[in-house]
Design brief:
about 200 residues; alpha+beta; 5 helices; about 20% strand; elongated; disordered C terminus
């Protein structure tokens, strides 16, 4: 049960990898039980599961952990003065989002990229709910965000953000919604340091 929660929670390569370690320990124990009790089917099943779990350990604690560590290293190094700040693109699926006053709004769940220009068009922000239940999704143009290493700052008030229409299930827009007016955003028009986020002239 613990291993299932660790892998299902998707809390990163290390947590998922350790979940597979717990799975492996369990399958080895059941293999021994089957061996001592003469249950051939139990042994065969759990030997196979042990093999599968070992692949999971290699996948998450080996390869995927190395990817995440590499991205984290690049992100931390880029925070030096005079260096453009970097963050892993995969982080756009779970970055915290705050409004212009610093109040936490929610988190990002996805970013939509224009194929022709390779630029981020808009970001989906999830608010409310627990575990995805009763949450609301809103599409926000990339030009409305300021990118920071520890999250995104929405250059709007919470009230302006909540006036944006909530998305209807899986029906996401084919193009970025229009940015809010300068009155609602405090006059900001672009995201410093993020080339893809400049507002149109």
């Amino acid at each position: 049960m613990i291993a299932a929660m660790m892998t299902a929670a998707n809390l990163g390569a290390r947590v998922t990898g350790w979940g597979f370690i717990v799975f492996t320990a369990g399958s080895i124990c059941w293999s021994l039980v089957g061996f001592w009790s003469g249950q051939t089917n139990l042994v065969a099943t759990n030997v196979f599961l042990t093999f599968v779990n070992l692949i999971g350990i290699w996948r998450w604690l080996g390869r995927q952990r190395a990817y995440e560590d590499g991205a984290k290293s690049a992100s931390q190094t880029s925070r030096k003065p005079g260096t453009p700040t970097l963050f892993a693109a995969t982080g756009l699926s779970a970055m915290p989002v705050s409004d212009i006053g610093g109040e936490r709004l929610g988190r990002t769940v996805e970013a939509m990229v224009e194929c022709g220009s390779a630029r981020v068009s808009y970001i989906i922000v999830a608010t409310g709910g627990v575990g995805g239940i009763d949450e609301e999704l809103r599409a926000v143009p990339i030009a409305c965000f300021e990118c920071r290493a520890d999250g995104l700052i929405l250059l709007e008030t919470k009230a302006a953000f909540e006036r944006r229409p909530a998305l209807d299930g899986e029906d996401w827009p084919s193009r970025a919604p229009r940015p809010a007016s300068g009155r609602e955003t405090g006059g900001h028009a672009a995201i410093p340091g993020m080339e893809t986020a400049h507002a149109p002239a």
